[in-house]
């Protein structure tokens, strides 16, 4: 197992490298870099991306028509002093060749130095820590809700395998899995947040404006009132996989010899299920909790946070991409990628810990 862990840890380095390399290369062809954003604000021309007509390329996606500095042209720089453009490049670190900037970025990221946000005078780390509680809150509650739904439903489906209940619930699960979370979130907003029908839940934010003045029981109620719709939207597809995993895990255990022996001894079906099967079947499901949480945390938070106006990491990344705030974009990409890779290794270790029969080394040979 030690050799397997070492191999996985060594793979983290090239995986991170190529993730950052591909995204860095793509950014070079995206029009409307941070300098264009500054020039747009100076000249009062609004959204810089509406004014981009030239081809991409250059430093961090800089492109345009006039005001050339080196090999990069910035639209909107007409009439501005050349030394002013050069100073902007120096401040944003765009005065160096792309290859040099890329490896300098990697060297800083290895030391967890992610720089400061272009749009706010705050380090990327502090910005991530500021937004992380919202995303963790959504991911945690979504994962717990998925488990609370999936485990009882999966157990009942396993006990009634092939029945009418099993068939129609499978249809519901497949339909829920097929619905994108963001589309379901929009539907919830339209139906229950004053879109066109009912005004039951708030449409935005994690707490009410008067939250500080509320008593602590009302603060709890207000908090859950606000997260009800986004958590439901994030849970809709994740519980389907967990339900089927629970059902198949229990079916595998029910068909084993020790279950038949327990039944032959005269134990009740409930005693067999919860005294023997439940303990063994749940090991794999519990071991997968880190992976499920990270999956919900990453895949569900971005669009859901934007739809429900929640100030979390997903919305942070979305707004940073729109504003070409590259330290935030690449810093969060690096942090999330590293977290995902490490949690993948932790999930494998938990599987081996709860079930020593699993051997990843022999599976690879």
Automatic annotation (TrEMBL):
Q: How does it sit in the membrane?
A: Multi-pass membrane protein
Superkingdom: Bacteria
Location relative to the cell: Cell inner membrane; Cell membrane
An example GO biological process term is: transmembrane transport
By its UniProt entry, which PROSITE patterns does this protein fall under? Answer: ABC_TM1
Q: Pfam families, alphabetically?
A: BPD_transp_1 (PF00528)
- Stretches that traverse the bilayer: 9-30, 136-155, 167-192, 223-246, 281-308, 328-354
Main localization is: membrane
* Name of the protein: Inner membrane ABC transporter permease protein YejB
The gene for this chain is yejB
């Amino acid at each position: 197992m030690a050799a397997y862990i070492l191999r996985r840890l060594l793979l983290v380095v090239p995986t991170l490298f190529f993730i950052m390399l591909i995204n860095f290369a793509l950014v070079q062809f995206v029009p409307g870099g941070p300098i264009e954003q500054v020039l747009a604000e100076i000249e009062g021309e609004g959204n810089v991306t509406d004014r981009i007509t030239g081809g991409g390329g250059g430093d961090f996606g800089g492109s345009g028509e006039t005001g050339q500095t080196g090999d990069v042209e910035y639209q909107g720089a007409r009439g501005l002093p050349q030394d002013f453009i050069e100073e902007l490049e120096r401040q944003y670190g765009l005065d160096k060749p792309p290859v040099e900037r890329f490896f300098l970025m990697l060297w800083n990221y290895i030391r967890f130095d992610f720089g400061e946000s272009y749009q706010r005078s705050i380090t990327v780390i502090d910005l991530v820590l500021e937004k992380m509680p919202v995303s963790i809150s959504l991911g945690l509650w979504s994962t717990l809700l998925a488990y609370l739904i999936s485990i009882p439903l999966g157990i009942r489906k396993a006990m009634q395998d092939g029945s009418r209940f099993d068939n129609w619930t499978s249809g519901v699960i497949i339909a829920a899995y097929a619905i994108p979370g963001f589309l379901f979130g929009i539907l919830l907003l339209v139906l229950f947040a004053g879109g066109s029908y009912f005004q039951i839940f708030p449409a935005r934010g994690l707490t009410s404006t008067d939250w500080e003045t509320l008593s602590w029981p009302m603060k709890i109620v207000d908090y859950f009132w606000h997260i009800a719709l986004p958590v439901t939207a994030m849970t809709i597809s994740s519980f389907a996989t967990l339900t089927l995993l629970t059902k198949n895990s229990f079916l595998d255990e029910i068909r084993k010899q020790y279950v038949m022996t327990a039944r032959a001894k005269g134990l009740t079906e409930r005693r067999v299920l919860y005294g023997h099967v439940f303990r063994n079947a749940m090991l794999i499901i519990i071991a997968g909790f880190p992976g499920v949480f990270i999956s919900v945390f990453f895949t569900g938070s971005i669009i859901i946070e934007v739809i429900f106006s929640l100030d979390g990491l997903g919305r942070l990344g979305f707004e940073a991409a729109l504003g070409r705030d590259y330290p935030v974009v690449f810093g969060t990409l690096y942090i999330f990628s590293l977290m995902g890779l490490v949690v993948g290794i932790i999930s494998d270790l938990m599987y081996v810990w709860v079930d020593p029969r699993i051997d990843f080394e022999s599976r690879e040979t």
